[in-house]
Design a protein that fits this description.
Number of domains: 2
Strand order of the largest sheet: 1-2-4-3
Number of strands: 4
Strand content: 5-15%
Oligomer: single chain
Structural class: alpha+beta
Radius of gyration: 34 Å
Distance between the termini: 11 Å
Order of helices and strands: EEEHEHHHHHHH
């Protein structure tokens, strides 16, 4: 069963009067791209969170956001000497006459280096890391469950498209031999009319040579065989479902190339109509596989 790259998961945790809400959203991406947003006092665990997500997700753009609400965290330590230097520098700024300088200490405290994040001791870090990992594991489980459900829907649509392409391709394969016969009959009729009006005769094997050359130019048997082979491989990938998105995308591109070749070589209106429908189905498959992990 294939897996989609679209998923959503959430989890909650409350501790010491603080409520933590975690959300993980994933969408399609050619590679695995992570965006991790943690509160400042938990950013020490970002590397561990990154490692966990990479162990559970193979492809897609994943965004993890943790929000904390409740009691305010302990005040961050201030570098008072640096704060004073900022104030001294700002006090030296010359302003137009009549304007009194006002220094906003809160704004100055937000300048680089004045305040730092409140630090946790080792035991507090271990405890915070433990519940954070549990929280993420639960949210990732929800994401994976949703991605599998989305993958089931994708697979049903892809299998339907494959069956439709196979049906249209069978019609093309049945029609192909009659194209040569119809060309031979049309050519014989035209040659006979020209010979009667012009009073000349055509060599016996000339007509056969022309039909043979036309048959060689319009031969699409190899393209039909390759397209059927690509469909077989595509169906095998649907059953395997282990990070097959890129391979599926490549196969869909190859199927489209074979369909284009069939359309350009066949020189028949009935086959051309089938080819147009086949290309439409393959384009739909290409769009769908963009979201397959």
């Amino acid at each position: 069963m294939i897996v989609s790259m679209t998923g959503y998961g959430s989890a909650r945790h409350a501790e010491n009067g603080v409520a933590h809400e975690l959300e993980i959203r994933t969408v399609n991406n050619r590679y695995l791209k992570l965006s991790i947003k943690l509160p400042e006092h938990l950013q020490f665990a970002e590397a561990e969170v990154d490692k966990l997500l990479r162990s559970r997700l193979a492809r897609g753009s994943a965004s993890l956001t943790l929000r904390s609400r409740g009691e305010a965290p302990a005040a961050a330590p201030l570098d008072v000497s640096l704060l004073q230097r900022y104030v001294d520098v700002l006090s030296q700024v010359r302003l137009p006459a009549g304007i009194q300088p006002v220094v906003d200490l809160a704004a100055v405290a937000a300048l680089p280096g004045v305040s730092g994040p409140s630090s946790l001791d080792d035991e507090s870090r271990r405890a915070a890391s433990a519940w954070l990992i549990r929280l993420i594991e639960g949210a990732v489980d929800d994401v994976i469950a949703m991605r599998r459900e989305e993958g089931r829907t994708l697979q049903e649509d892809l299998l339907s498209c494959c069956a439709a392409v196979r049906t249209k391709l069978s019609s093309v394969a049945e029609r192909a031999p009659t194209v040569i016969d119809e060309y031979r009959d049309r050519l014989r009729t035209r040659v006979s009319a020209l010979m009667q009006s012009g009073g000349f005769e055509l060599e016996a094997d000339a007509l056969a040579r022309e039909v043979a050359l036309y048959a060689e130019r319009c031969d699409i048997s190899e393209e039909i065989q390759r397209l059927n082979s690509h469909l077989d491989q595509f169906l095998e990938l649907c059953d395997r479902g282990d990070q097959v998105g890129r391979t599926m995308d490549f196969l869909a591109q190859e199927m489209l190339r074979e369909a284009n070749t069939i359309g350009s070589k066949s020189n028949d209106a009935a086959i051309a109509r089938n080819v147009v429908e086949i290309k439409g189905l393959i384009d739909r498959m290409k769009e769908q596989v963009q979201n397959v992990e």
